[in-house]
Design goal:
This protein has 448 residues and is α+β, with helices and mostly antiparallel strands. It contains 11 helices and 12 strands. The protein is rod-shaped and about 165 Å long. The two termini are 55 Å apart.
């Protein structure tokens, strides 16, 4: 607006200056022509008529007329202040040199316009200088500039108010988001950002709310995990304490009872050791940077080795352990961790399958992935619990799991291992109809 007002002011001044200079120069040429035609400078007898006509013209047009001869001496001055004097200004010198000229003098608020006068043989015998006041135009330009300045200031105030109002509309939800983020960073994970309408801010708020929900779930899982660890370790510790106190309180106890109590204590210690070992395995898997030792792994051979180790466990329950391979598959994987993950699946199938049941392991694949399927004829998992079985310490049947000696971490370890290999694992099951775990692993391992 300021730039535009400056350009407008300069344009108006140039326009009015040009118009007035041309008008005054036209008058100067007109008067010079009338003087030349009437021979006022060459005929001394016409002096009175000359002065009278110049005075009339000056009063009529409201400007000062000065006529000089070729020596620069004032012959006629409508203001009567410079008669007989040598009047030398740039405009007169230019006119005596044979050129017409008009200039605006801002310091005097006047336009000086000059025109030369010739005789019959085209000799320069004098010049006419008109001094026309520029006050009216000067005042008009000032009024326009003043009003334009007021308009500019007014519009600037209105624009500033609109910008402030709009910025508040824009920044208000951003401030709300920032305040909520600060509260969340202070640990208030229950905080949520209110979402109104549909724009970029609501998308950001929705993303932050989703992230906060996930953080809250992680925190809840962490607390639940700590609680489960405490509970799982407290149970064997309590048993050990009770057994130890029983031994200490008995002054005389048969050797067989000592042996029985010590065996029970040893079993509880083994159980604690299994829990701690599984926890350490999970901790290592959580450190993704150094979690895997990737190498070429023959899946068929690895699973056959796992099934040989677990065969005695299946034989105790008269469970048929079947192996089926549709093709020979080799993947880039950490063989030791992958072997543990598959072992957990097969061992779980054996544990939760009743006597005389069946556990079947199938290997298949394509040009990108290998698929390992572990199918059992056990108790099955209902749909509601299928999404929870990979949580740490989660048990579908806590009573039976205690009996089988599980820690509740096997499937969590399997899930973490498969995720580290950029694979996936899913369950197909229903209560009472057994469970099928399908593991997909990419043949080529890629970081991230």
């Amino acid at each position: 607006m300021l730039l535009f007002s400056f350009i407008m002011s300069d344009t108006l001044r140039s326009y009015f200056t040009d118009i007035n200079e041309k008008e005054v120069l036209y008058q100067a040429n007109k008067i010079a022509g009338s003087i030349q035609k009437a021979e006022y400078l060459t005929d001394p007898g016409k002096k009175e008529s000359f002065e009278y006509e110049m005075d009339e013209k000056s009063n009529e047009e409201n400007f000062r007329i000065i006529v000089v001869n070729n020596a620069g001496v004032v012959v006629v001055d409508s203001s009567k202040t410079a008669l007989g004097k040598i009047y030398i200004v740039p405009e007169i010198l230019t006119a005596l040199d044979g050129k017409d000229q008009a200039n605006l003098r801002w310091d005097e608020h006047a336009i000086y316009a000059s025109a030369y006068i010739e005789n019959d043989v085209s000799e320069k015998i004098g010049a006419v200088l008109i001094v026309s006041s520029f006050d009216d135009v000067y005042e008009l330009i000032n009024v326009i500039n003043h009003r334009w300045l007021i308009l500019t200031v007014g519009i600037s105030i209105i624009v500033a108010f609109i910008v402030f109002f709009v910025s508040q509309l824009i920044l208000a939800p951003l401030k709300n988001i920032l305040e909520t983020i600060k509260k969340i960073s202070e640990g208030q994970l229950h905080q949520r950002i209110e979402i109104n309408g549909k724009n970029e801010y609501t998308e950001i708020a929705d993303a932050i709310n989703n992230m906060t929900e996930q953080l809250e779930q992680v925190e809840s899982s962490r607390q639940e995990f700590v609680s489960n660890v405490s509970h799982e370790l407290k149970t064997p510790l309590s048993s050990i304490k009770v057994l130890s106190e029983s031994i200490l309180l008995q002054e005389e106890m048969p050797t067989e009872m000592y042996r029985e109590f010590l065996q029970d204590i040893n079993s509880e210690i083994d159980r604690m050791t299994n829990i701690v070992n599984d926890l350490l395995a999970l901790v290592k898997l959580d450190h993704r940077e150094d979690a895997l030792n990737i190498g070429e792994t023959n899946v068929n051979r690895m699973i056959q080795d796992v099934m040989k180790r677990l065969y005695p466990l299946a034989e105790k329950k008269n469970i048929e352990l079947l192996y089926e391979s549709n093709r020979d598959m080799t993947v880039e994987a950490d063989e030791m961790k992958l072997s543990l993950a598959v072992s957990n699946l097969i061992e779980n199938g054996i544990k939760y399958t009743p006597n005389d049941g069946m556990v079947k392991v199938t290997i298949d694949g394509d040009h990108q992935n290998v698929f390992i399927t572990v199918q059992d004829t056990g108790m099955g998992i209902n749909e509601e619990e299928q999404s929870k079985v990979f949580k740490r310490f989660y048990r579908v049947d806590k009573t039976r799991d205690r009996e089988t000696g599980g820690t509740g971490l096997g499937l969590a370890i399997t899930h973490s291992t498969v995720m580290l290999h950029n694979g996936s694992i899913k369950i197909v099951s229903s209560e009472g109809n057994g469970a099928t775990f399908i593991v997909r692993l990419p043949i080529k391992h890629s970081e991230g």
